[in-house]
Amino acid sequence: MGVLKDLKPDTPVSVRDLFGIDTDMTVMGFAEKDEHVPEIDPAYHFDPEVTLAILAGFTNNRRVMIQGLHGTGKSTHIEQVAARLNWPCVRVNLDGHITRMDLIGRDGIVIKDGKQITEFQEGVVPWALQRPVALIFDEYDAGRPDVMFVIQRILERDGKLTLLDQNKVIEPNAYFRLFATSNTTGQGDLNGLYAGTQVLNHAQMDRWNIVAALNYLARADEIKIIQARVPDITDKNLLNSMVSVAELTRQGFEVGDVSILMSPRTLISWAENIEIFKSVDKAFRLTFLNKCDPAEYFLIAEYFQRAFNRELLD
């Protein structure tokens, strides 16, 4: 890990060439790929505004939060930018089981010179803080209050972390970067879609320098992604109808008609299941319909009928 600590971004890259965004912006990346660099997904579609926000985080050491509905690819967006910059990246899901000790570290028993001794094992935060690593806190609005106050320390401008148990202050690596994703904007879950999310401390939200919103893709881009993931599905009419169903569920969700919507992730699963079951209707039921409230089956079936111009088969 000592080699990773010494790495510095040393390779200028064109944003236009790398991400297809119409800008003369140049960013620095790493010449060599470390084991912590995510794999490149050649089919990934970059949102220009969100990409520029993430790049600002990398180049200007800004704390960047990406907010949006589930399935829009928030965490993946950060990882795919990091992958193209060869920037080491670590992702932590802030579910209810993550504790302060998981982030900071804890005493553990190790064997040295044939003897058992107690030694402090640093957690992911001090480990990443000392290295040129992009640390992503996924599901940021689901974190426990005691965990969130740990994160608040490294959101400060100098980003120093004090380990009280160790009487130690950790200075951040010059190329440590911090990102987060959330389904809400820190105001809590108002519609019941994201159970477990918290109302975030305003002082902590205020420490995020950039907040970008990632929405669902345009129809043509969504179709391209399905085709890239499931290339055996070549029927353009089928793909258009599938995306139409997804768009209708999203519109219905916005006005409160249905309590669940189809994300791009669900669309891809539907396409994959069509290949498995050789049936559009059966794949739809097994991928999406069975997740819905039974009281909404009729309306979801109506969306299907409007998109495919036929009834959903039993």
Could you explain how this protein is built, in words?
The chain starts with a helix and ends in a 6-residue tail after the last helix. It has a 5-stranded parallel sheet with strand order 4-7-10-3-11. The protein is built from 13 helices and 11 strands. The longest helix has 19 residues. The chain is of the alpha/beta class. About 3% of the residues have low confidence. It folds into 2 domains: 212 residues, Rossmann fold, CATH 3.40.50; 90 residues. The protein is globular, with a radius of gyration of 22 Å.
Blueprint of the fold:
Layout: H1 2-6, E1 11-14, H2 15-19, E2 26-29, H3 48-60, E3 64-67, H4 74-85, E4 89-93, H5 100-104, E5 105-112, E6 115-122, H6 124-129, E7 134-138, H7 145-154, E8 161-163, E9 168-170, E10 177-182, H8 202-205, E11 210-213, H9 219-229, H10 236-254, H11 264-277, H12 280-287, H13 297-308
